Amino acid sequence: MIIWAKLLPYIKGAALLIAIVMAAKLYIAHVDRTARAEQKAADAAEVSRVRAEAKAADLEHARATEAAHAQGTKEANDALLPELEAARAGLADYARRLRAQATGGGVGGTDMSGASGGPDLADGSDPLPLLDDLDRCTEAVARLKNVQDWWLKFDPAS
């Protein structure tokens, strides 16, 4: 028993040291968990803030792009009518020349073998029904050129 009596203060000191070390470990683990939770919350707040800024920037860019496209579309539509009128005037001139050649008024090598002549048309219809198709094609080409010009304003590759 005497040995235990002599070792008891050392055992109490070792137990106290073990208790202090365990308490320190528990405290450090608690501080670590708290710090990690706070960091996680801060990271989540930062991610939310960055996402909100990115969303606002994307929306602003989309609105600016939409406004630029609307302006380009307005300009293209405004330019379409004079282009279409000029194309139709060119087609009308071409049709007059074809009709003149078809009725024998012109000379040249135009083969009008399937087109009937103007003088022998009793109903007054157009001797060149193909001109209706040419009118539609002329309008389509003018519109497509207009769309192409519009697209080239916004295409980054051009």
In N-to-C order, the SSE pattern is HH
Shape: rod-shaped
Assembly state of the chains shown: single chain
The total count of helices amounts to: 2
Question: Which structural class is indicated by helix and strand composition?
Answer: mainly alpha
Total strands: the figure is 0
Low-confidence runs of at least 5 consecutive residues: 112-122
The profile of the biggest β sheet is:
none
Helix proportion of residues, in percent? over 70%
Alpha-carbon distance between the two ends: 99 Å
* Average pLDDT taken over every residue: 82
Gyration radius over CA: 45 Å
Percent of residues in beta strands?
under 5%
Give me some keywords for this one.
single chain; mainly alpha; 158 residues; rod-shaped
Please provide a written account of the structure.
The protein has 158 residues and is mainly α. It is built from 2 helices and no strands. It has helices at residues 2-102, 130-154. The protein is rod-shaped, with a radius of gyration of 45 Å. 1% of the residues are buried. The model is unreliable at 112-122 (pLDDT under 50).
